[in-house]
Amino acid sequence: MTEQTYTVDMQKLYTATATAYGAAGEKVSTDDGRLDLPLSLPTELGGEGSDGTNPEQLLAAGYSTCFQAAMGIVSKRLEVSLSPNTEVQTQLELHENGDAYDFKITITVKNSDLKGEQLQRLLDETLKVCPITRATQNAEIQVSGA
Predict the structure, then answer these.
(1) Which stretch is the leader sequence (predicted)?
(2) What is the pLDDT of residues 24-70, one digit of tens each?
(3) What is the pLDDT of residues 104-120, one digit of tens each?
(4) Cα–Cα distance between 25 and 32 in angstroms, integer?
(5) Which domains, ranges and CATH numbers included, belong to the chain?
(6) For residue 53, how many other CB atoms are within 10 A of its CB?
């Protein structure tokens, strides 16, 4: 049996561009200036633990907001309503895996009016459409030097 690849034409909706500066990542900012943050390595990873944030915190924050937005879209498709008090908490753990590093990610939905099967269906469907979830599975990544 031969493997076939199918390409789907996708419409680009938005582009975000961020740049990290410094040999050890001392600052990160976006091209539109809305995000401009100092970075610091946590003490658990050998850093000084200064006031800056780190990539793991940024990814956890981005994943929480992305998942929550996707959950809102899916809830409309499923015709269920979410409480305005719904919270999405993302816990991201960095693990050493030989010479590489991996993440273990736990997403917890709190204060939702949905329970049981209804909530599980919403979460299962949200996992299928959340762009960060999808990107961590089959991302198209291009890396180049300039």
Answers:
(1) none
(2) 779 999 999 999 999 998 899 888 878 899 999 999 999 999 999 99
(3) 999 999 988 888 899 99
(4) 19
(5) 15-53 (2.20.25.10), 54-137 (3.30.300.20)
(6) 14
